Amino acid sequence: MPHFDVEKIRADFPMLAALEGGKPLVYLDNAATTHKPWAVINRIRDFDSKEYATVRRGSYRLGERATDMFEQTRKKVQKFINAADPREIIFTSGATQSINLAAYSFGKKFIGAGDEIVVTHMEHHANFVPWQLLCQEKGAVLRIAPITDSGEIIMEEFAKLLGPKTKLVAVTMCSNVLGTVNPVKAICKMAHDAGAKALVDGAQSTPHMAIDVRDIDCDFYAFSGHKMYGPSGTGVLYGKYELLDALPPYVSGGDMINAVSIEKTTFSKPPIRFEAGTPAISQVIGLGAAVDYLAGIGMDNIAAYEHELLEYGTKALSAVPGLNIIGTAPHKGAIISFTMDAAHPHDIVTIIDHEGVCVRGGHHCAQPLMARYGVPATARASLAFYNTKPEIDQLVKALHKVLEVFA
Amino acid sequence: MSYQNELYQQVILDHNKNPRNFREIGDTAHSCNGHNPLCGDKINIYLKIAPGDVIEDVSFTGSGCAISKASASLMTTFLKGKTLAEAKVVFEEFHKMVLGDLDPATQQHHLGKLTIFQGVREFSSRIKCASLAWHTLICAIDKTGETTME
Ligand SMILES: Cc1ncc(COP(=O)(O)O)c(C=O)c1O
Question: Any idea which architecture A6-30+298-405 has in CATH?
């Protein structure tokens, strides 16, 4: 592996130089949201101060240029996840909205009473509740694929859930709690063999590994901009074009229409059909800068460095007395959830926060998963390529402080 | 401000480790399950009320962080023998104190040893931990049921 110059990268992120209570900020909550490089911050400032106008409306040149840049971003995202066509990229406000869009539009057209939707026990509520609600509304059945103690989908059990009634499989590519990277390519193949479509929740995978939606062969792929060093309020739903073209709109109003008369409205083609109203213009432009930034570093380099951090962190945390790591699958992203015998996650988080280390404690919007492990909550350190081994040492030192307080 | 002086004081750590009145009261109409959805804390309060609206017995079960457990434990030891009217006054005062709207050092109050929780006001994400037991108490006084911290 070529040398990964993390100090050079850290200089790109102004927030990483911030102090928290007089101590250097050790930010280990990247699964929740990530900080932004100057490239993103500056791009938005430049756009807002020199190039801003509405998109897809004006016929004046300023608006045309803004529209061009907006559509260029769509192409950047297309390339970034290796989609076949830019029209397969729908801009949303985040992974949550992406999945809700898919659930609403796909559900409206293709889900009826008695149909089945399969999810897994490790889904984020964003990839769980929309399907639960859809099933309740349509009289469909939600099936949950079980997981092992180490945090892997039990593939034989998953296979048994698939059948002629299965219409959709929705699965996360990387668990936001366990870190498990799921075999989504195999899962999509199994779904297709059963005649079902497959949605992959890419919120935790897109920022950390190279994504090829054509290789995965998913029908939908959802992710958030703010977890990949881009602006909050942005997200993407990828969908295969033919499928998107068969779906009714989710939100209706301006922009997504072809023609409106008093009697009826006909809708635009994808992706515009699914982008009613004025989008988050500057933020989408900023997302384009984040994609460029990540592509410049190289997702494979990022994944390799983060894997090194994961191994280092797993070893270091395992050595803390009474600490239990939850999620020990062989194939993991750089997320380490844990509990401590000595202290509740909420207390862990408060104490290490005051030692300058940000981790999240709670149920991580995955209550079915917490129930599966019989814990009310976990603490979670989620790493990014701007984190360092000394920061992990800092975390370990802070955890020893927890042991001291609760001795 | 330090979390050890303000939040994790010895008395609180002790009540967390050895919670008092940590049990159910079976034969009572007054109980409530309190829940803080943000952190998953669950505190169940049981109350036995004697004639004259006197709290004859009060206990709790559940799981939660050190602050919510210690708060529930200290609350139960504080309330035994008090009237419901007194309990409601202390609930109001406790609530104000953890929000920083009542300063026990300069204002009148009936909080006694419960002032140990005043440091919580400096830790905004922990205020609900301290007040969960109290909200659940009010629910148990009024009826049997469930209450969720919003
Ligand atoms: C796996 C997973 N899916 C979906 C989401 C929802 O993302 P957002 O809140 O950006 O819509 C998250 C965010 O935590 C997540 O981790």
Answer: Alpha-Beta Complex (3.90)
For testing contact with chain A, the best of B1, B2, B3 (most A CBs within 10 A): B3
Q: In terms of residues, how long is chain A?
A: 407
Task: Identify the pLDDT of residue A219.
Answer: 98
Top pLDDT among A256 and A86 is at A86
Residues within a 6 A CB radius of ligand 1: A 31, 94-96, 124, 126-127, 172, 176, 201, 203-204, 224, 365
Contact (Cβ atoms closer than 8 angstroms) between residue A277 and residue A255 = yes
The whole-number pLDDT of residue B144 equals 61
CATH code, residues A41-296: 3.40.640.10
Cβ–Cβ contacts within 10 Å for residue A285, how many? Answer: 26
Best CA proximity match to A95, nearest among A247, A284, A221, A272: A221
Q: Is B99 on the interface with A (CB under 8 A)?
A: no
Nearest-Cα distance to chain A for B51, in Å, is 38
Q: Is residue B137 part of a domain?
A: yes
Given a cut of 50, the residues of chain B with pLDDT beneath it are none
Query: What is the value of ipTM here, to two decimals?
Result: 0.89
B149 domain-assigned: no
- Write the secondary structure of B87-119 as one string of H (helix), E (strand) and C (coil): HHHHHHHHHHHHHCCCCCCCCCCCCHHHHHHHH
CA distance A400 to chain B (A): 14
Ligand 1: residue whose CA is nearest its atom 14: A32
**DSSP character string of A220-246:** EEEEESTTTTS-TT-EEEEE-HHHHHT
Distance from CA of A351 to the nearest CA of B (A): 7
pLDDT digits (tens, 9 = 90+) for A189-220: 999 999 999 999 999 999 999 999 999 999 99
Q: What is the mean pLDDT of chain A?
A: 96
Whether the CB of B18 is below 8 Å from some CB of chain A: the reply is no
Atom of ligand 1 nearest to the CA of A99: 4
Phi, psi of A369 (to 5 degrees): -70, -40
- Is residue A218 part of the annotated active site? The answer reads no
User: How confident is the model over A34-47, as pLDDT tens digits?
Assistant: 999 999 999 999 99
Q: What is the CATH number of the domain that holds B40?
A: 3.90.1010.10
Q: Is the pTM of this model over 0.90?
A: yes
Test B66 with A347 for CB contact under 8 angstroms. yes
